[in-house]
Amino acid sequence: MNRHALPLATLSLSCTCLCLVGCSANLFAPVESDLGERLSVERTRDVGSLDLAGFVAESQLTPDAQNLEARPSPFEGLTELGLTIEEARAATLANNLDLKVALVDPSIEAQSVSEAEAAFNSAFTLSGFWAQTDTPTSSTLNDAQAEQQSLTPGVRIPLMTGGTASITLPMRRTETNNAFSTLNPAYTSDLQFSLSQPLLRGAGRRSTTHALRVAGINQDIAETRTKATVIAQLANAERAYWQLYAARQELQLRQEEFEVAREVLNQAQRLLDAGSVAEIEVIRAESGVADRLDAILRAEQAVLLQQRTLKRVMNIEGLGVGSETVILPVSPPDPVMYEVDAAQLADLAVASRMDLLALELQLLADASQIDFNRNQTLPALNLDASYTINGLGGNLRDSASIAVQNEFEDWSVGFSGEIPIGNQAAESRLRRSVLTRIQRISDKASREQTIRQDVFDATDNLRAGWQRIMASQQAVILNTRTLEAERRQFELGSSTSTDVLDAASRLVSARSDEIRAVVDYQIAQLNLAQSTGMVLGAAKVRWEPYDDENPEVRALEDGRLW
Q1: How many CB atoms sit inside 10 A of residue 400's CB?
Q2: Cα–Cα dist 231/246, whole Å
């Protein structure tokens, strides 16, 4: 062994390291590749503009009612799809994108539970080293030069009590230039059992299982939020369905009103030709036709918008928001008078609403957090114990044989502790968790009041909705009689075309109010069911979280899989 080569090499290596440190501004500064892909400045800061000049139509329409009358309907020649309310529900459950997002949340939280459980998994450990020493000595009894090789396999076992147990098998080979060494090289084989157990901070199952308990609660909260999303998306689908139904009924009314205006115009023209009325009546009738045509255009646009909303909620393949397929709601509303007990439904809502249940679960998590933070304010005091069986020999087999005989044993018991001075951080975390729970308790009480108010409001809206249906139906009957009377008077010359058109408009308005009242009554029933944390009707709906093997939502109605 060259006694001078190693010090010189060491000195050279040290100087090289010092030079590198001195020459580099920061060896640990991130390089460009560490920062990942960056967006261009132009993409984030430049604001584009849309120039519509390139979209100007070749032919421009003139303000002529005849041109508009001759235009094709936006629904002409398109594929029609009859859709029931049950089919709309099923499509929403199977395809809605917002629902698909929510269905992944429980599975995500389930992974957090698995991660928390993994904290109690045992681990195989392995350590080893090689060392060569060359130490000046004043005695021939001591080693001057030695070479050591060590390998220590073992198993570490986390305990529910917060402690850690370990079993290790240290094996070492030592070769020295000591002439008085009886074994050279010498082999040692030991079997060591050790235990480290916290007695205060971090001790006990409630402390060690805190993360697992909170992860389980968070999974339950994700389940509740997903259920709330299922209910909300079903409600959105039904609202969109009935809004589309109302829009199509409104369009039909406006088309019928337009035909009535055309009849009045033709009648006025005949009377003018017969010399029974002045020309002004024809002009008034033509104005009425133009007004009714404008109403048709607005009704068509409403149908397009409501239809697109329903398509988005259902998200059926081939029936996207840009598809030209016309949806025809074929499930008519069936208004029935209900006498509901608002107080009873409010109690049911408090027991069923997922948002309130989520708050209750969060309170459980808060309680666990308080217990954990209170434990963390305690001093650290650990008990350490070990038991070792020692073996020594001229080779590995001999050392292991002596260890098996269990003739040489080591015992040790000790403790270590730490008392923070001030302990401000831990005490602040404890106070914060207590205040958070106090805040959440008030939030839960407030939420319960809001839920009860939602139910009472929905009940009142349901009751008022039925009265609106009765009133609108009576208005339709009276306005129908008025229109018939005005037509007879116009034929006799005792009334004007304007009077007939006004009567027709009032009838259409009354029929429109009736349709709106019926649809609003359907939506009021839907809102009442949603306010109680349920879906409307007798359908049984069940959802399943996303998983790789079966990534779909199941819905059961009357025991039948959709």
Answers
A1: 19
A2: 23
Q: Which of 366, 364, 96, 354 is nearest to 222 (CA)?
A: 354
CB 160 within 8 A of CB 208: yes
Look at residue 169 and tell me whether its pLDDT is greater than 50. Answer: yes
Nearest alpha-carbon partner for 453 in 522, 526, 523, 527: 527
- Is the distance from CB of 189 to CB of 62 less than 8 angstroms? no
Query: CA 27 to CA 51: how far, in whole Å?
Result: 51
The count of other CB atoms within 10 Å of the CB of residue 388 is: 17
Task: State how far the Cα of 324 lies from the Cα of 32, in Å rounded to an integer.
Answer: 49
Distance between CA atoms of residues 103 and 545, nearest Å: 5
Residues shown for the chain: 562
pLDDT tens per residue across span 332-353: 998 889 889 999 999 999 999 9
Could you give the domains of the chain?
74-112+214-363+444-539 (1.20.1600.10)
pLDDT (tens digit, 9 = 90+) per residue, 119-128?
999 999 999 9
Cβ-contact 326, 81 below 8 angstroms: yes
pTM given for the model: 0.79
